């Protein structure tokens, strides 16, 4: 472990501040060329020791009430850190009410609103929430802190990461957030195509055109483009899933009826690994998703005006355009990401 | 021994230099962007409700309104110009960037005209802007690439008296979508605010009359032109024509 001690000396005081080994994010070229830099909190810089600790915590069931469930159980690497189940099961067998969100490129969520309804600000706060959620890990932070403090390894790991072996929930959340920021996905076939490293099939190319064509898919207004490699606007929209809402989404957070039925646009990266789809996991396949936008839109007071031809159910894509759109969408999946 | 930080030393030197020289007639300027519907103020608190009626008679709501301004230019009567650095994405929906202070200083004095560009001129439109890419502001390459000039989304009551979405998106008009798009005419708008004398930190209060987008010279019927307007070069040219009188200078405070 490399650790530096910086000494700040002023005329009348001397303060020692522990600094672990810096480990800045490796920004992919397409990100550096096309979008603004990621968000790294001043009070939680990326460090080797912090990331190592955060990774251990992420995969350790010690955070749950009965030591049976880790973050990774509902955010599995092979599913792009999502859950293949429609709703994740907590330690007591309770099911959540929304599909587990995949975890990648989180440092580029510029507004720092997390979860499907944006109810939590900052990645550190997001990492804090599931531990005490009764439908998830159903623990409490006092117990978690005690278990970690009594563990044979954690106190030393915290000391290496943060300069103190006194473990508290804030440091746990900081470490997990540091690890989550390293989950960067930027090596899909389409990324390689943009970098000139591979060619797309004619179906994938036509699918991209369907995606970008305002008279066809018109997906780019909300889901990024070749110039926005996040493949999401990280904003909230009502995409016409329901006429009435059993889950108000953003509206329940803001209290504004104009936000009812709005949920975060998920990234379209890694769709090959993240089924089922939508906030409630209602669609098992990409075909169902595409059919929804093509023929299945349901109107409501808050449906986004960007949803086209609602009175016809949607944009009415041809079967070949649907197949090509699916082929393009799958080209955004990053197999390197789930392996490594 | 007392220590003086480098930044403080720099400030002291700068202060000293200023006090020893003649008055430096440089000032910052600020541009505030306000919005109205035929004289009635509009903010994002007025959004998401069918409460506006356009010249054709369509009743409509506003749900999203963002637009780009660039190339703020100060014109001297002798032909010299000062072009201020930067551009500004006004986001009325989220109440962001309604006030813009360019980093470039302006010399005080009389100007025969002050202007800005709604959108980007064709040269600027071809650059790569990471902040605008991040804001999902791009125009697909199949429509010539570049960036939106405006995204104005909402709903209107259609002929069947049902709410229907509209996307009044202004871009560079393209006549021939495809690999080599052609452009029938420029659709960015140079907005002239008229002569002004700048004496000190000036604040320009700009008004956008949103209703004008639907009014003159083209009375806009949303039943006919509502969505997929980006590839519609005729609609883009109509937007350009209607946009000529959308902006006005309400006042200059200094």
TrEMBL record, chain A:
GO CC list: periplasmic space
Cofactor binding comment, as recorded: Binds 2 heme groups.
Keyword RNA-binding appears in the UniProt entry: no
Pfam family, one: CCP_MauG
Protein residues bound to heme c 2: 219, 222-223
Places the protein is found: Periplasm
Modification after translation (UniProt): Binds 2 heme groups per subunit.
Cofactor: heme
Keywords: Heme, Iron, Metal-binding, Oxidoreductase, Periplasm, Peroxidase, Signal
Superkingdom field: Bacteria
GO molecular function, one term: heme binding
All residue ranges annotated as the Cytochrome c domain in the record: 202-333
Residues that bind heme c 1: 71, 74-75
SUPFAM superfamilies: Cytochrome c (SSF46626)
Keyword Heme: yes
Protein name, UniProt field: Cytochrome-c peroxidase
Automatic annotation (TrEMBL), chain B:
Keywords, comma-separated and alphabetical: Signal
Presence of the UniProt keyword Signal in the record: yes
Span of the signal peptide: 1-19
The UniProt record lists the keyword Metal-binding: no
A Pfam family: MbnP
Ranges for domain Copper-binding protein MbnP-like: 28-226
Protein name: Copper-binding protein MbnP-like domain-containing protein
Source species: Algibacter amylolyticus
């Amino acid at each position: 472990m490399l650790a530096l001690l910086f000494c700040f000396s002023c005329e009348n005081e001397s303060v020692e501040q522990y600094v672990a080994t810096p480990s800045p994010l490796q920004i992919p070229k397409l990100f550096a060329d096309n979008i603004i830099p990621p968000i790294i909190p001043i009070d939680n810089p990326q460090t080797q020791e912090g990331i190592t600790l955060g990774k251990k915590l992420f995969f350790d069931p010690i955070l749950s009430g009965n030591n049976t469930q880790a973050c990774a159980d509902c955010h599995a690497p092979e599913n792009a850190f999502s859950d293949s189940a429609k709703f994740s099961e907590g330690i007591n067998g309770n099911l959540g009410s929304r599909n587990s969100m995949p975890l990648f490129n989180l440092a580029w969520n510029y507004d720092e609103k997390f979860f499907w309804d944006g109810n939590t600000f900052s990645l550190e706060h997001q990492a804090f929430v599931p531990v005490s959620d009764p439908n998830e890990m159903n623990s409490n932070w006092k117990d978690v802190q005690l278990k970690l403090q009594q563990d044979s390894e954690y106190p030393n790991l915290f000391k290496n990461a943060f300069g103190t072996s006194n473990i508290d929930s804030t440091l746990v959340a900081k470490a997990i957030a540091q690890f989550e920021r390293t989950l960067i996905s930027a090596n899909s076939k389409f990324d390689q195509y943009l970098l000139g490293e591979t060619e797309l099939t004619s179906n994938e190319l036509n699918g991209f055109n369907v995606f970008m064509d305002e008279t066809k898919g018109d997906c780019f207004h909300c889901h990024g483009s070749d110039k926005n490699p996040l493949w999401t606007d990280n904003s909230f929209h009502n995409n016409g899933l329901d006429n009435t809402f059993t889950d108000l989404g953003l509206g329940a957070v803001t209290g504004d009826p104009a936000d009812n039925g709005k949920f975060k646009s998920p990234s379209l990266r890694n769709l090959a690994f993240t089924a089922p789809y939508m906030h409630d996991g209602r669609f098992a396949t990409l075909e169902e998703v595409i059919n929804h936008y093509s023929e299945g839109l349901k109107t409501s007071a808050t449906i986004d005006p960007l949803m086209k031809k609602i009175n016809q159910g949607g944009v009415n894509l041809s079967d070949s355009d649907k197949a090509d759109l699916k082929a393009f969408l799958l080209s955004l999946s990053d197999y390197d990401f789930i392996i490594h | 021994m007392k220590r003086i930080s480098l930044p403080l030393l720099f400030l002291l030197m700068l202060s000293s230099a200023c006090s020893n020289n003649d008055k430096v007639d440089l000032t910052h300027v600020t541009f505030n962007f306000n919005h109205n519907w035929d004289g009635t103020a509009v903010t994002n608190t007025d959004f998401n409700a069918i409460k506006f009626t356009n010249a054709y008679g369509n009743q409509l709501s506003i749900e999203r309104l963002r637009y780009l301004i660039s190339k703020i230019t100060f014109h001297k009567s002798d032909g010299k110009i000062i072009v201020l650095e930067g551009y500004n994405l006004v986001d009325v929906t989220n109440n962001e960037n309604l006030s813009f202070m360019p980093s470039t200083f302006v010399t005080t004095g009389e100007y025969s005209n002050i202007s800005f560009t709604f959108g980007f001129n064709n040269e600027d439109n071809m650059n790569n802007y990471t902040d605008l890419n991040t804001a999902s502001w791009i125009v697909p390459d199949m429509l010539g690439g570049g960036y939106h000039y405006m995204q104005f989304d909402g709903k209107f009551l259609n002929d069947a008296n049902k709410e229907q979405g509209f996307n009044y998106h202004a871009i560079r008009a393209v006549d021939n979508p495809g690999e080599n798009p052609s452009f029938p005419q420029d659709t960015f708008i140079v907005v002239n605010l008229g002569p002004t004398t700048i004496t000190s930190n000036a604040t320009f209060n700009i008004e956008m009359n949103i209703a004008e987008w639907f009014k003159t010279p083209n009375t806009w019927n949303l039943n006919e032109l509502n969505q997929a307007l980006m590839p519609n070069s005729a609609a883009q040219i109509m937007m350009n024509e209607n946009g000529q009188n959308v902006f006005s200078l309400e006042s200059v405070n200094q």
